[in-house]
């Protein structure tokens, strides 16, 4: 398709697409996803205690989290401690033998942690595990 300008010269239309803005947007999205991906593992930030023995978990799991304010979560949903056992049993489909993992912030008093353990034991959950981070010694860093 040709166009005529005021001087009588013929110009052709520009048919190339400018991809620079598209690349800019895609790079910004890439950076955003790279920064937020580690937070998607668990939406609740917890400073886990550090131990020498750590087991890597790969299967689907039910995770109970206790944050610094002593709020209890199952997955990413806050729950009342009185309903904790029922909610977990519902997620485990009634199997008390399936593993339940507890993530607890190190700033939480032991009494709050013990209450959660007691609520799980009252629900007849026997396979309770504590999630920790690996302890880095001076020789292993």
Class from helix and strand fractions = alpha/beta
* Gyration radius, in Å: 27 Å
**H/E element order:** EEHEEEEHEHEE
Separation, N- and C-terminal Cα atoms: 66 Å
| Fold-level CATH name of the largest domain | Nucleotidyltransferase, domain 5
Largest sheet: 5 strands, mixed
Strand content: 15-25%
Order of the strands making up the biggest sheet? 6-5-4-7-8
- What is the number of domains? 2
Number of helices: 3
Helix percentage range? 25-40%
Architecture overview:
The termini are far apart. A hairpin with a 5-residue loop joins strand 1 and strand 2. With 141 residues, this protein is an alpha/beta fold. It has helices at residues 20-36, 84-91, 110-122, and strands at 2-4, 10-12, 50-51, 62-66, 72-74, 77-79, 100-104, 128-130, 133-134. The longest helix has 17 residues, at 20-36. The strands form 3 sheets. A 5-stranded mixed sheet has the order 6-5-4-7-8, covered by helices on one side. A two-stranded antiparallel ribbon has the order 1-2. The protein contains 3 helices and 9 strands. It folds into 2 domains: 2-39, no CATH class; 50-134, Nucleotidyltransferase, domain 5, CATH 3.30.420.
Topology (SSEs and partners):
Blueprint: E1 2-4, E2 10-12, H1 20-36, E3 50-51, E4 62-66, E5 72-74, E6 77-79, H2 84-91, E7 100-104, H3 110-122, E8 128-130, E9 133-134
Parallel strand pairs: 3-9, 4-7, 7-8
Antiparallel strand pairs: 1-2, 4-5, 5-6
